[in-house]
UniProtKB/TrEMBL annotation:
<dbReference type="Pfam" id="PF08620">
    <property type="entry name" value="RPAP1_C"/>
</dbReference>
<dbReference type="Pfam" id="PF08621">
    <property type="entry name" value="RPAP1_N"/>
</dbReference>
<feature type="domain" description="RPAP1 N-terminal">
    <location>
        <begin position="200"/>
        <end position="228"/>
    </location>
</feature>
<feature type="region of interest" description="Disordered">
    <location>
        <begin position="164"/>
        <end position="192"/>
    </location>
</feature>
<dbReference type="GO" id="GO:0006366">
    <property type="term" value="P:transcription by RNA polymerase II"/>
</dbReference>
<feature type="domain" description="RPAP1/MINIYO-like TPR repeats">
    <location>
        <begin position="962"/>
        <end position="1183"/>
    </location>
</feature>
<dbReference type="InterPro" id="IPR057989">
    <property type="entry name" value="TPR_RPAP1/MINIYO-like"/>
</dbReference>
<protein>
    <submittedName>
        <fullName>RNA polymerase II associated protein 1</fullName>
    </submittedName>
</protein>
<dbReference type="InterPro" id="IPR013930">
    <property type="entry name" value="RPAP1_N"/>
</dbReference>
<keyword id="KW-0539">Nucleus</keyword>
<keyword id="KW-0804">Transcription</keyword>
<dbReference type="Pfam" id="PF25766">
    <property type="entry name" value="TPR_RPAP1"/>
</dbReference>
<dbReference type="InterPro" id="IPR016024">
    <property type="entry name" value="ARM-type_fold"/>
</dbReference>
<dbReference type="InterPro" id="IPR039913">
    <property type="entry name" value="RPAP1/Rba50"/>
</dbReference>
<dbReference type="InterPro" id="IPR013929">
    <property type="entry name" value="RPAP1_C"/>
</dbReference>
<comment type="similarity">
    <text>Belongs to the RPAP1 family.</text>
</comment>
<feature type="domain" description="RPAP1 C-terminal">
    <location>
        <begin position="297"/>
        <end position="362"/>
    </location>
</feature>
């Protein structure tokens, strides 16, 4: 195969390739000739065409050279009769040869004009007064382009290389075609008649142009412009030429009075006036009127504040620019994005700093009332995160610093950090999993995809480079440490990536946590390198909360243990730092040590620094006894110290259990012995530091004054309507601190919840050690603020979100402690026993609220309070007997309806068995319960991580957990083909216990199931019919189902039953109803309970699709659906009113009646329903002809009488409806018109 020549081929290769081509005899690829197209302007192009048959077979010789068709063939090189020296001199282009040919021009007769003298520094430059001169100089280069862009002028007028006449001359003389060609030269044509051929082509072009219309010329110009490869410079220049020549208003003004700026002679470079560039000097239009309702684009100043469109700001502020709206001050988000990628360094830095300020104010919620959308969402959707990431790679330190500040403003919320510190301070003594994991609440890996994207862009390596090589200013260092802290809070995987980043942690430890340093000479220091920083310690603390292995890695490999000793051994005033910075460093060191102690680590450090802790705790007592209040850094250090002592105490309390575990595993007990020594030190430390008089008793007696308004601060009740705020972004989860800043809340300094929670923890510990002291603390449980608060919680429905979960956890823990304390006090104190029902309602409401990580609380409530007879006072105070009397009064004469009283009495006897049933079905949560128990009870050696688990689909227990045994049995059995004997062992007993518990809740604890919708209850109970073929026929199951059906069909419950809403876990209720129909036809045996269950969705208010399924696809079920009117607990009017409007369903009604599929003896209820709807349809306002086919096709005995004389449903009647004695006159007339004969056969008595 022949190949094209390559640049690397030598001359020998080219000759070989040419010889191979000639030998092959392949046809040539190119030919030349004239191309003529009738549809375009006939401008002929000269193309070369080669013919293979004209070439000789042999290669021609080089002497003489073959003739070439060239426009300059006479000047080509010749090998014969030519002087070589002359040829070389002629083609020599060296500078010496060029200069030697220069001939001086004769200027003897020319006039010499000297420049005139002036007072300026430089002579005046000659300027053309008309812009057309400049255009004409360049016109010979871009004449063809201009002809394409000027459709108002004929193409032939611009084919000359000389400039065309001015527009005024053209308008005066009119369009006139030139006599000769001005663009075509004919240099490519050969032969002696080249000029004649060129003139002939030109004449043809002129003739074609004259025959074409203006629209055709413009279309051809557009096609030529699209075909030509024109650069943007040529197009823009053509547009400039067109605007300069064709638009007279674009010409400069004739006098200086028309200019917006009056130039003066002493101004430099003002000799040539450019009006387009001086337009910005004109006066700006006035701002928009205040009465306008038109929305405007948001504009911000350099501080990130929103500028009102009605505000008229002075121009010296630098907020006016050459944008689309120059009269408005400020920069829009789009303009800031544009400036952030500018080539000017100052513009990039200014835009990034402005974006950082906007993000900070947006997170604080300052734009919520002024802007219609979310600033955070808009910026993230526009690609802000990637813009900042690109800016962080800038090689200019100022831009780099601005990008770091903007990333910190985007990822880190200062208000959230304050809330984190407050929560870790006031709730740290709780011993809960979230007490020290102040970083874990922002861990939502399924939502915060931005962090994953950032980590994949190599952000950690870039931050390490900036910290290690660039060594930026102190503010940038603080920003970068805050960003690293926020990334570490995302998840344990992100924390591991921070730890594994090469040299990152080494730089942090060596530069910002040194073991030795000197006091800075200036405050604040110009550089923080070589000084300990609280932000670096905070980063280590957050990394330690990700897991015990990460904490051990920090302590052993990175030298954190030595840093703790170095920072905590001296007093804060001896750290050679500024006082505030020293206190913050000391407080963060205590917090980091507390996290390590929460894993049972750093015990040796506690023994080594025992004297330091003793001295610090004694200093705390002295400071508290002083009259002056503590400063904020001092208070934070004291609180961190107490958190450390709490965790150390938990670790010391586990030494016996750990020692026994190590002995069982044949290991050494050195660690347990060390913890035993720590326990002795803790006891001595607390004994020496506690005051002689404990203020617990006075605190309890004055509890009412300490808790004035707990409901207003509650996150469960949420009376203030706190929400995540308009700037909350699901992909960047936070604590929604902006929603809690303007009102009372749980996480504010004035909240009573921290003190109440700490008090409940103390009382729980005291009552657990000495049960005889339980009755001493009943005053707290029966106080009016606590009772009112618990009542509000029972009626509340908390809104769960990633932003509210962090405060709900603490309030859930407080509610749990109150219920647990009441469980211990109620059997011994009658005052608390009177409120046992309220505390049981709180426990039942709390169970479906508990979040993942609180499984231990749920397990403890199920084991203690939920199934306790002491907290069901109705069971032993005449509750079942009262219900029996009510049943006898209301339903005397209805023996099929099961009395609820005996069923409740039996359920109360079976409460321990009910508890065992539910605990057995929740056994799959055992690993989570054990992990949660270790965290809540302070079993530090077994705590794996301080990060809270993901919120996931919702709370730890579903809202419909009482139905769990039914759903579990349905999932295990499948299609319901098994019999009771074939079910798993204990299935019948589990179903019975589940139905007993549901009956008890429906009667006495109705609010406990308020989160479960009525349609969900009906769907869950339907599992009894679908789990086995005869499970619903068992007597205890059927009795309980009858009672629950009566409760579900009460008038107040029935109105809220909406079957159009899909039950949780199902696509639609109609799918469940279809499965019930199939099961009923197969195994029901005409059971009235199952029949009532099927009749419930057939009410008139529900969709006709389920009735169509019964009368169409499953018409066989009508033969056994023998539910009587007495057995039905619903009013008959719910099935017959309003009249049916579905014609297909009416046809099915009629067909089932005519064919005998629906008989009164077999299905009296639906027989009455079908009669009512057909009667209403027959005697409606429609045409009378619809009665005739009905009357003619009815052949069933008595059906025509029922159909025509039907008057209305009557539930106490033997037929279920009552009829007319004779046909009413209006119906008789209508029937007579339809049949055409008088009707007298329907006058009997029915």
């Amino acid at each position: 195969m022949l190949q094209r020549p390559k640049p690397s081929d030598s001359e020998a290769d080219l000759l070989k390739e040419q010889e191979r081509f000639l030998v092959s005899g392949a046809p040539l690829a190119a030919k030349y000739g004239y191309v003529y197209n009738k549809n375009t302007i006939k401008l002929r192009y000269e193309c070369m065409r080669l013919f293979s048959e004209d070439l000789p077979d042999d290669m021609p010789s080089l002497t003489p050279a073959p003739s070439k068709k060239s426009c300059s063939k006479e000047n080509r090189v010749r090998f014969e009769d030519q002087d070589t020296e002359e040829v070389l001199d002629k083609h020599d282009t060296h500078i010496s040869a060029v200069l030697s040919r220069i001939v001086e021009r004769d200027t003897s007769s020319s006039l010499v004009s000297l420049p005139t003298f002036s007072g300026t520094a430089f002579p005046r430059v000659l300027h053309q007064t008309n812009r057309l001169c400049l255009c004409f100089r360049l016109f010979h280069v871009y004449s063809f382009t201009y002809s394409l862009l000027s459709p108002s002028i004929s193409l032939a007028l611009f084919m000359s290389r000389s400039p065309p006449p001015p527009p005024a001359l053209r308008e005066a003389s009119g369009p006139r075609l030139p006599s000769g060609p001005r663009l075509l030269s004919g240099e490519g044509l050969g032969g002696p008649d080249r000029s004649a051929e060129t003139l002939r082509i030109h004449q043809e072009n002129q003739a074609m142009l004259q025959t074409m219309s203006r629209g055709e010329i413009l279309e051809e110009q557009r096609k030529l412009l699209a075909q030509l490869v024109l650069g943007p410079l040529m197009v823009s220049l053509g547009a400039m030429l067109r605007a300069s020549i064709l638009t007279p208003e674009a010409l400069p003004p004739s006098s200086e009075e028309d200019l917006p700026l009056k130039p003066e002679k002493q101004w430099v470079h003002m000799g040539k006036l450019e009006p387009d560039k001086l337009e910005w000097t004109r006066d700006l239009p006035g701002p928009r009127r205040k009465g306008t309702q038109k929305a405007m684009q948001a504009r911000f100043d350099f501080a990130g504040s929103l500028i009102s469109p009605h505000e008229d700001l002075p121009t010296h502020l630098g907020l006016h620019h050459h944008g689309e709206e120059p009269e408005l001050a400020g920069y829009s988000l789009q303009e800031l994005f544009l400036l952030s990628r500018s080539q000017v360094i100052q513009q990039r830095s200014l835009s990034l700093n402005t974006l950082a300020s906007i993000l900070t104010k947006a997170r604080a919620g300052q734009f919520a009332s002024a802007l219609s959308g979310s600033v955070m969402t808009t910026l993230l959707d526009a690609g802000l995160l990637f813009l900042l990431r690109f800016a962080l790679d800038d090689n200019v330190e100022g831009v780099m610093a601005a990008a770091a500040h903007a990333i910190r403003a985007l990822l880190v919320s200062d208000q959230d950090e304050v809330r984190q510190r407050f929560r870790s301070v006031f709730f740290s003594p709780l011993g809960s999993q979230s007490s020290l994991s102040s970083s874990s609440l922002l861990s939502v890996p399924s939502l915060s995809r931005w962090f994953q994207g950032l980590l994949r862009t190599g952000l950690l390596s870039r931050l390490r480079y900036i910290l290690e090589v660039v060594r930026p200013s102190p503010r940038v260092v603080q920003d970068l440490l805050a960003v690293l802290t926020r990334i570490s809070r995302h998840s344990s995987h992100a924390a591991t990536q921070v730890l594994d980043c090469p040299r990152l942690m080494d730089v942090v430890m060596s530069e910002f946590l040194p073991t030795s340093w000197s006091a800075p000479s200036l405050h604040p220091p110009p550089s923080v390198y070589g000084l300990p920083l609280a932000g670096a310690l905070k980063l280590l603390r957050v990394l330690a909360t990700s897991g015990r292995h990460a904490c051990a890695r920090l302590l052993s490999s990175l030298g954190v243990r030595e840093r703790l000793s170095r920072l905590l051994s001296p007093e804060p005033g001896e750290l050679l730092l500024e006082s505030g910075q020293a206190l913050r460093v000391s407080a963060e060191a205590f917090r980091l040590w507390a996290v390590a102690a929460s894993y049972g680590q750093a015990c040796d450090t506690y023994i080594e620094l025992y004297s330091v802790l003793l001295r610090a705790l004694q200093a705390v007592t002295r400071d508290l006894d002083s009259s002056g209040p503590l400063l904020a850094p001092q208070r934070q250090r004291v609180q961190a110290l107490l958190a450390l002592l709490t965790q150390v105490t938990h670790s010391a309390g586990c030494h016996q259990e750990l020692h026994a575990a190590m002995l069982r595993s044949a290991g050494r007990g050195d660690a347990a012995e060390r913890r035993g020594g720590v326990g002795v030190c803790v006891v001595r430390l607390l004994r020496s530091s506690l005051p002689p008089h404990c203020p617990v008793r006075p605190l309890l007696h004055d509890s009412s004054s300490l808790l004035p308004f707990p409901r207003s601060c509650s996150a469960v009740c949420d009376l203030q309507g706190h929400g995540p705020g308009p700037e909350a972004v699901p992909s960047l989860p936070g604590l929604a601190s902006a929603g809690w800043k303007d009102g009372p809340g749980l996480a504010v300094p004035s909240s009573p919840f921290p003190l109440l929670t700490a008090l409940c923890v103390l009382l729980d510990s005291i009552t657990g050690i000495h049960k005889g002291l339980s009755s001493k603390f009943s005053g707290l449980l029966v106080s009016e603020p606590v009772i009112g608060y618990l009542g509000s919680c029972c009626r509340a429905t908390p809104n769960l979100s990633n932003a509210s979960a962090w405060v709900l956890r603490h309030e859930h823990h407080l509610l749990y402690l109150l219920v647990r304390l009441a469980h211990r006090v109620a059997p011994k104190d009658p005052a608390v026993a009177r409120h046992a029902s309220l505390y049981h309602q709180v426990a039942m409401a709390l169970l479906p609220w508990l979040l993942p990580g609180s499984e231990h609380l749920a397990h403890d409530l199920l084991c203690s309070v939920v199934f306790s007879k002491d907290f069901l006072p109705e069971s032993h105070s005449g509750g079942p007997e009262a219900l029996e009397l009510a049943e006898l009064k209301l339903h005397a004469g209805a023996p099929h309806l099961q009395a609820v009283g005996p069923l409740l009495r039996e359920a109360c006897v079976q409460l321990p068995s009910l508890r065992g049933c539910y605990l057995g079905h929740l056994a799959h949560l055992e690993p989570s319960v054990l992990g949660s128990k270790d965290a809540y009870l302070g079993r530090t050696p077994w705590v794996r991580s301080r990060l809270l688990p993901e919120l996931g689909p919702g709370p730890a227990l579903p809202a419909d957990w009482p139905y769990l045994p039914l759903v579990t049995l349905y999932e295990r059995t499948g299609g319901g083909e098994l019999q009771v004997e074939e079910l798993p062992r204990g299935a019948l007993q589990a179903v019975t216990h589940c139905l007993q518990w549901l009956l008890l809740l429906e009667v006495w604890r109705e609010g406990a199931l308020k989160a479960v919708t009525p349609v969900a209850k009906l769907a869950r109970l339907s599992c009894v019919f679908l789990s086995a073929s005869d499970l619903f026929l068992e007597r205890p199951v059927q009795r309980l189902l009858w009672a629950l059906l009566r409760l579900l069909t009460r008038p107040d419950r029935l109105d809220s039953l909406d079957l159009d809403v899909a039950p949780p876990g199902l696509a639609s209720f109609q799918d469940l109803f279809s499965a019930l129909l199939v099961q009923y036809e197969a195994v029901s045996f005409g059971d009235p309970l199952f029949g009532c269950w099927l009749l419930l969705p057939l009410q008139r208010r529900y969709s006709a699709a389920m009735k169509l399924a019964v009368f169409g696809e499953h018409v066989g079920a009508l033969r056994s659906l023998g539910v009587t009117l007495e057995q039905l607990s619903l009013p008959l009017e719910r099935y017959t009113s309003p009249p049916e409007a579905s014609l297909p369903l009416l046809q099915l009604y009629f067909r089932s009646l005519v064919t005998g599929g629906l008989l009164q003896a077999r299905c009296p209820l639906l027989y009455t329903v079908a009669l009512a709807h057909l009667n209403a349809f027959l005697f409606s306002e429609g045409p009378a002809q619809q009665v005739s086919p009905v009357a003619q096709r009815v052949r069933v005995k008595g059906l025509i009488d029922h159909l025509l004389l039907f008057r209305g449903p009557q539930q106490d009647s033997a037929l279920g409806f009552h009829t007319y004695q004779q046909l009413p006159p209006d119906r008789a007339q209508r029937l007579e018109r339809a049949l055409g004969t008088p009707d007298s056969s329907h006058g009997g008595t029915h």
